[in-house]
Every structure is written in C-alpha cells, then in structure tokens.
Amino acid sequence: MDQAEVDQFKALMEWEAQRSAPPAAFPKLPDMPAARYTSEEYFELERTQVFRKSWLFAGHIDEIPEPGCYMRWHNAGDPIVIVHGMDGVVRAFYNTCRHRGAPVVTQDFGKSSRLMCGYHNWTYKTDGTLIGVPERQDFPPDFDMSCRGLLPVRCEMYGNVIFVNFDPEAPTLLEYLGPIADEWEEFGFGNLRLASRHSFDLNCNWKVAMEANMEVYHVPFIHPTTVAPLVDPKRNVNTMYPNGHARMLAPAPQETDREHVRAIDSPPEWKQIETVGEFGRTATQSYTLFPNWVSPLSNFFVPPLVFWPTSLNTTRLELVTMAPDWGDGPTPDLWTVPDETQPNGRNMSPIILEDTQFAEAIQQSMQSEAFKSVPLSYQEARIYSFHQNLDRMIGANRVPGHLRIEPVIGEEWVWPNDPRVAEMNAAQGQ
After folding, report:
1. Helix/strand/coil (H, E, C) string of 198-236?
2. Which pLDDT value is given to residue 267?
3. What is the per-residue DSSP string for 328-342?
4. How far is it, in rounded angstroms, from Cα 294 to Cα 366?
5. Rounded CA separation 74/194 (Å)
6. Furthest-apart CA pair in the chain: how many Å?
7. Cα–Cα distance for residue pair 409/388, rounded to 1 Å
8. What phi, psi does 370 have (nearest 5°)?
C-alpha cells in the first residue's frame, strides 16, 4: 500500500468517526431471512454449492515438509490425501483406491515414496500414477493401469499455505484471491512457519460462529478489556472485494498507546515480519477469505480462524498461528492456551472464548418462533455482502424464495470502487 492509499484510509477513518448516518450512497439492507441459519435445505446448498466450489484452507507445507510426506484431510466431506511429491510438487487426491474404494492412507500424517492401499496393496506413485497391481495376470489383458490413477483434487499454494478446491472448473487460486494476493505480499507468506493448529467443536451453525468475527459492532460489549483497547469501531473502514472476500481496517482508540497493549498483540520476544507496512504495525486489519477463513494480519503473525460446518447446528473451529521462524524462543500460539483439562491439552484463548461464549445459546434461540429475520447495520455490511456471495455461488435459481436475500450491495461498493471517497471529498470541499 503506497503512501497515498495510506493517507486516504486515514482520512476515511476520521470521516467514519464523524458521520452521523450511513454513507448517503450506501443501500438500505433488507432483513435477511432467519431460516438461513436453521434450514437443512439451505445448509445442504452451502455444502454442495459453496464448499465444493471454493478454495479452502487445507494446511501448511510444514505439515508435509519433505518429498514423500503426506497428510489426510477431510474437513469438507470427501476424504482426501495431500502429498508432497517425490518431484517436489504438492498435490491432493481423493483418499480412495481405484480398486474397491479402500483408503490409500490411514494415518493422519506419514512419509513414503509410494502410496499403497492396505486392502490389496494397489500401489501409487506420489503423483497419483498406479504402478502396482498384485496378481496382475488375473485381470483382463486390456486392463489399462494408466487410467486407474488416484483421482486428483485441485491443489494450489499461496506461499507456504496449501489450498484445495473440489471444482475442476474453478478459477486459479490467485484469480480467486484477486487483489488480496497483492495486499498479502508484505506479510511474506512464503517465509511463515506453522506454529500451531488446534480444533474445537462448537454447537452452532458455522455462520453464527464466523460472523462474530466479521464486524466490530460487538467489540465494546463482548471484549471490553481484550480487543476494545486495540480497536476503535467508530473508525473502522470496511472494504468488500470480488469473490466475497472482505477486510476491516481499524486503528486503536486515540487514547490508547498501542505499543503497550498486548491483549491480542504478540509477546515482545516474538520475531517480526520486517516487510509489513504501517497499518500492519499500527492498526487491526482482518481479512475474510470466502467462505470460511477470517484472520487478522500483523507484523508478528498470520493467525487464521477457519470455520468448518459439521452439521446444520455444529461447527469445527480451527485456530491456526503462522509466524516467522521463532528459533529457540517460545512457540507462537495466538489463539490457544495450555489447559490440562481439555482432551488436546489446549483451550481457546480468552478472546476466542468471549466470541464463542454465546454461540450455543444463540443457535438454540434461533430455533424460536420469535426469530423471524435479521436486520443488519452499515457496520455489519461485511456480513450482508458475505450472504450475497453465498447466494451467488449457490445460484439464485437454486435458493428457495423464502431463503433468498436481495443483492442490494452493488459492484460500486466492491474494490477498487468506494463511493465513500467521493462523499468524503465533497464534504471537505475537495
């Protein structure tokens, strides 16, 4: 981000703080149907039309660091195996032998120059090619092994981060990220290591959990001593991007000395990403990567929260910390803390506990006849935009009329467009 952009965002922050109503050009947001959070029909559409067609966070190269390393992954339904090939290429395949459907690997992590199904020992190279069939003479003479390789799943990387996509017709990962790929360059994704990755189960719809991290309206009430000292919600600037992605950019309250607040900042002994610019060092900027990744990015870390729907009313929350190499220092872990009472010896940090404390109660309350619709404010525009993109990916013709939302946030509000700039300049007589 060059200095002109930095200065414009600073001006927008002050303009946001001084406005007494939503921007004049911003559309009135119609109420969203309540059943989008409680309908099995809509949940099934999300599962088949959104999570099967989007680029999804799968892992980090540190989990499969050497040729021959592999990992199982099953966060979006079908089980797959992600392999660091002997040729150095990272690939993904359905974890399904082409013989009688047994899994090719049964361990979460492993290393081998070949992938061999334990049922009948059909053997595959790390590029998916079938190279071994025991008792080959018992199959027909025209049995063609070349067309019996493991079925691939789209797999691409941004820096050291691995993404997968089940849709063979999907755009490339870089096309999907769009301008975010350029904005993230300063954070050096290719130099970040995986410091921690832990999962927790929540009893709520995945959107209930995720949307708590898509607005700052709640910050003064839910996070009075943790996040509130770092984030000024009145000066927050939301940006919508193509493909449903979004960003919030908020400075600390003017009375706060950010350098001495460590509520969600990193301990001073953590190493810094030296290439990070001004906002990464002085403000809170959090990106929503459609459909299920939310992450603040700073000069210390990239810590995604990833929300996986496991049923209509349950969610698996992955808490990940990626950071520069910490050497002999303490391993960075932004989102979890030691807790011997938990099955994996970790618990969610106070901030995440604050965000998730009402999730189950909210889901139960949503089942009530009293929950009829969802009115959203301008400050919650990222949530409405997110729902617009859900319907766009599903296809408006597939969404039943009583579940559909009106796409009122037009392209004029999607990067690089921003009607607020003209309104701000006009108010300032420019």
Report:
1. EEEEECCCHHHHHHCCCCCCCHHHHCCCCCCCCCCHHHC
2. 65
3. TSPPP-SSEEE-TTS
4. 23
5. 19
6. 85
7. 8
8. -75, -20
The sign of the torsion formed by the CA atoms of 410, 405, 51, 58 equals positive
Instruction: List b or e across 348-385, with b for residues whose CB sees 16 or more CB atoms inside 10 angstroms.
Output: bbebbebbbeebeebbeebeeeeeeebebebbbbbbbb
Angular region, 345: left φ>0, alpha ψ -120 to 50, beta rest: left
Tokens describing residue 187: 């954070």
What are the angstrom distances between the C-alpha of 82 and each of 60, 120, 158, 290?
Answer: 10, 21, 15, 22
Strand, helix or coil for residue 413: helix
CA–CA distance, 299 with 348 (Å, rounded to integer) = 22
Q: Which two tokens stand for residue 346?
A: 């970790």
pLDDT digits (tens, 9 = 90+) for 208-235: 999 999 999 998 899 988 888 889 999 9
Asked whether 166 and 76 are in contact (CB, 8 A), the reply is yes
Q: pLDDT for 160-199, tens place per residue?
A: 999 999 999 999 999 999 999 999 999 999 999 999 999 9
- Paired strand residues for 61: none
Which phi and psi angles does 243 have, rounded to 5°? 70, 20
How far apart are alpha carbons 27 and 15 in whole angstroms? Answer: 18
* Cα separation, 300 vs 333, whole angstroms: 11
Cα–Cα distance, 117 to 104 (Å, whole number): 4
